[in-house]
Amino acid sequence: MKTVYIGSDIGTSSVKTVIYDKNFKQIDKISQKYSLISNQKNQAELDPDEVYNSVIKTLETVIQKCNNSNFKVEFISFSSALHSMIIVDENNQPLTNCLTWADTRAKDISGDFKAFYKNNSVYSRTGCPYHSIYLPAKILWFKQNKTDIFNQAEKFISIKEFIIYKLTKKYSIDYSVASGSGLLNINNKKWDNKLLSFLGIGKSQLSRLVDIYKTYKIKNTELLKGISLVVGGGDGPLANLGERALAENQFAATLGTSGAIRVFSDKPVIDAENQSIWCYLLDENTYLPGGAINNGGIVLEWIKKNFFESADDYYKLIDQYIDEVPTGSKDLFFLPFLTGERSPNWNPDARGIIFGLDYNHSKKELIKAAIEGISYRMRTIKEALEADSSTCNEIILNGGATQSKPWMQLLADIFNARVIVHENEEAVALGAAMIGAIALGIYDDYNSIEFNHKKRIVLEPDKKSAKKYNQLYKFHKKLYDNNQHLFVEANSV
């Protein structure tokens, strides 16, 4: 009987559940999309029950496939997107939808919250800058605006905690996801007492902290009952793990719906002066400084919805336009802040700008300018990390952008660095499977895991394009700097 591992990545727009053999070679993958709820300004929610049902559907499908193939399933290990929040009542029923990382309603909370962050060194303890993406701001927003829901809150949990509870009847949160909540003291690995006191909530309203290797037996659904469930971690840390970017100077980038660049460290890395980066955890002893942008593929989806709705070959057109349109998109610039911005400026008020538009521009230039704008924002993160780490000449890339070779070349040129793509398509799910194998004692640690991790694509920067993009990047930053004050002012016009 063949032994297999299952890694399941609960993302913002879909769940991807992957079957791996014992050498971590992908055997099969099942995906299930779910709908983002955004009926109001700054709203970005998921229906937690829809997400749960989607997860169960993919899990049951792969388990059935394993049973039909006479495979022995060793475990199911989870990853999930960071920064999500659901409020549940005393009966464990959701009082809210799941607020995702893209939900920015909390940017307008009132009072002295920002001053509290600064005066109490919250960033230095939690590794999370002041921003509406994190749970402290979201919790405070409900306290100020939805008092009835806040007063009924039995627990504040993430989407992974919601799913694990329904499968095991246990409320547990791993250090990895907890570190992305903004509520965890990453130095002592405990919930931050000062922050909880300011918010007016208690530790009992948060889940039990466990390591990423914590294992339960599934108690729910007939097909899954009795299978070992490994709690796993957050998608960013597990993406780095799945890409085997284990050294302290190995940068791993994810560019999908949003984007991020991260690097492992054996100690906390904090930019106390600028607070340009965050610092999360993989496990109790492994830190992950990095930065993230809100606006990656979500910008391309917006363009498709508004300008290419009927185009079945939309993503082929993107590749074509990147190749056809000259570097710099004929002096057209796209600041891609459709959902505010995170690193390195942490500006939830940031909004999109199309600059330099003239009569000779078309949809071709608009698309390439958007791709360039997203890529410039990724470079800002690279530079912020390099300021607190070592210089990076090589970036391991994963995410949806790896489906576009022209975009990957454009990234290499804008980064002025080698871009590597490994053959595994789902780095996050693979990272979850690696955690599961360690949790069950199959391997001792990350470095003891041996499998063929081949480089599928290696792209070197084109010197001429890199030089041109360096000039354009400086102008892109100038555009942002000169319009910062207008973002806030525009909200009150």
Fold and architecture overview:
- It is a single chain.
- This protein is of the alpha+beta class.
- It has a domain at 2-243: 2-Layer Sandwich (Nucleotidyltransferase, domain 5), CATH 3.30.420.40.
- The protein has 15 helices and 23 strands.
- The chain has helices spanning 48-68, 113-119, 122-126, 135-145, 147-152, 159-168, 175-179, 193-199, 235-242, 297-307, 314-324, 363-388, 405-415, 427-439, 463-490, and strands at 2-10, 14-21, 26-33, 45-46, 71-80, 86-88, 98-99, 155-157, 172-174, 184-185, 190-191, 208-210, 215-217, 228-234, 251-255, 259-262, 278-283, 286-293, 333-335, 353-355, 394-398, 418-422, 455-459.
- The strands form 7 sheets. The protein has a 7-stranded mixed sheet with strand order 17-18-16-15-21-22-23.
- The protein is globular, with a radius of gyration of 22 Å.
In short:
This protein is an alpha+beta fold and 493 residues long. It is 37% helix and 22% strand.
CATH topology (level 3) name of the domain at 2-243: Nucleotidyltransferase, domain 5
Count of alpha and pi helical runs: 15
Major β-sheet, in short?
7 strands, mixed
For the largest sheet, list the strands in their spatial order.
Answer: 17-18-16-15-21-22-23
The CATH H-level homologous superfamily of the domain at 2-243 = ATPase, nucleotide binding domain
Radius of gyration: 22 Å
Spatial gap, N to C terminus: 67 Å
Note the beta-strand portion: 15-25%
Q: Write the CATH architecture name of the domain at 2-243.
A: 2-Layer Sandwich
> Regions with pLDDT < 50 over 5+ consecutive residues?
none
Mean pLDDT: 93
- Structural class by SSE content: alpha+beta
Shape: globular
Number of strands: 23
CATH class of the domain at 2-243: Alpha Beta
Estimate the helix proportion, in percent: 25-40%
Keywords: Kinase, Transferase
GO molecular function, one term: kinase activity
Family: Belongs to the FGGY kinase family.
InterPro entries: ATPase_NBD, Carb_kinase_FGGY, Carb_kinase_FGGY_CS, FGGY_C, FGGY_Carb_Kinase, FGGY_N
